[in-house]
């Protein structure tokens, strides 16, 4: 790659990149836009109630702490600072995103692909949770 000698750029800048996640999402709406949010939960917080991202996938990265992450069809798992996660969006229920620790906060950043005019997050009601219980990998 040609170097631009007019600037004092770091000659090793390309080595500064580390891929933490690479996925092919199932769908992206043609008119989607990206929304990036930072979420912070205090020690022991259970996080958001069960929900879905109907208009597109979400991609995240834990900045500090440890999140308990559970998607429909997958067992719950801990995602620690420095680790990435994603969810396909659409009809898939996101059951848990709470703080997995009771001694420190958790902070994570999420970029969601959203369709203008559609909500980026929709809560799932108790009746639907009961009807889809058989799709949950962990049956609490």
* Estimated share of beta-strand residues: 25-35%
Number of strands: 9
CATH fold type of the domain at 25-121: Jelly Rolls
Q: Give the helix/strand class.
A: mainly beta
How can the largest sheet be summarized? 4 strands, antiparallel
**Helical proportion?**
under 10%
Kindly report the spatial arrangement of strands forming the biggest sheet: 1-8-3-6
User: Averaged pLDDT, please?
Assistant: 91
Order of helices and strands: EEEEEEEEEH
Question: What does this entry look like structurally?
Answer:
With 140 residues, this protein is mainly β. It has a domain at 25-121: Jelly Rolls. Helix content is 4%, strand content 33%. The chain contains 1 helix and 9 strands. The chain has one helix spanning 126-131, and strands at residues 33-41, 51-52, 58-64, 66-71, 77-80, 84-87, 94-96, 106-114, 122-123. It has a 4-stranded antiparallel β-sheet, with no helix packed on it. A 3-stranded antiparallel β-sheet has the order 5-4-7, with no helix packed on it. A hairpin with a 5-residue loop joins β4 (66-71) and β5. It is globular, with a radius of gyration of 18 Å. It starts with 32 loop residues before the first strand and ends in a 9-residue tail after the last helix. The relative contact order is 0.27.
């Amino acid at each position: 790659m040609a170097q631009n000698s007019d600037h004092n750029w770091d000659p090793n800048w390309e080595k500064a990149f580390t891929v933490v996640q690479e996925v092919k999402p199932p769908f992206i709406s043609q008119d989607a836009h990206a929304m990036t949010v930072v979420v912070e939960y205090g020690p022991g917080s259970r996080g958001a109630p069960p929900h879905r991202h109907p208009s597109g996938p979400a991609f995240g990265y834990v900045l500090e702490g440890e999140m308990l992450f559970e998607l429909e069809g997958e067992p719950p798992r801990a995602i620690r600072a420095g680790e990435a996660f994603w969810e396909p969006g659409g009809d898939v229920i996101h059951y848990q995103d709470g703080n997995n620790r009771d001694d420190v906060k958790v902070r994570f950043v999420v970029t969601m692909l959203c369709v203008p005019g559609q909500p980026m997050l929709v809560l799932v009601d108790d009746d639907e949770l009961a009807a889809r219980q058989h799709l949950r990998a962990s049956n609490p």
